[in-house]
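Sanity check. The docking grid for coenzyme A depends on where the pocket ends up, so I'm generating a full predicted complex first rather than guessing from homology. Inputs follow.
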Amino acid sequence: MDLLHSQLDPLAIALVGWIPTVVGFAIRNLVYRACGMRAKGFFWIQPRVTIDNLHRLRVGRNFGCNSGTYINAIGGIECGDDVLIGANVTISSGRHEIDRLTSSIYQTPVVPKPITIESGVWIGAGASILANLRVAEGTVVGANCVVTKDTEPFSVVVGVPGRRIRFRIR
Ligand SMILES: CC(C)(COP(=O)(O)OP(=O)(O)OC[C@H]1O[C@@H](n2cnc3c(N)ncnc32)[C@H](O)[C@@H]1OP(=O)(O)O)[C@@H](O)C(=O)NCCC(=O)NCCS
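Predicted complex below; grid placement will be based on this.
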């Protein structure tokens, strides 16, 4: 199953991931679902977004993702409703085992670790979301931030590593 997806997903991305205009959005909605991606409604994935393991990505209503972003859903990525992902973001739900010094990093398998992105989250351009964490409801992640741990609901996090600078005013 995983072997099939490792071949199928890059092919699907290469075939339809570049198509501009609303035609591209519509085709990606059809093709990515056929590859196993689950979505509650029409999603807005711009051209030049790379997604590995489409069958482990689940998004809610009104999912938007800008160009140049890389998503690896190997460990499972679940997004709530109204999630916006900026350009050139990296979201990878797996990591290499780094403490097994008997084998090279090349040989250590990727350990799947899930990521949850709750409803109403906006992730700024160039940010990185590391594996095994939860971006809480309504969080704003600043441009180029590296999110290394769970965020608090309606917080604004910036920097490397990501730190809360304030809460959003409700
Ligand atoms: C996170 C963000 C929304 C914060 O906006 P804000 O609450 O109005 O923040 P402010 O501009 O008042 O800045 C508050 C402080 O955080 C710092 N800051 C703001 N954004 C930052 C960022 N991305 N990285 C590091 N520091 C940042 C400011 O320098 C300021 O620091 P200071 O108090 O020492 O002067 C905004 O800065 C941001 O990064 N937006 C993303 C834009 C983007 O990616 N657009 C393209 C999408 S495709």
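Relevant for the grid: Helices lie at 2-16, 21-34.
Also worth noting: The mean pLDDT is 95.
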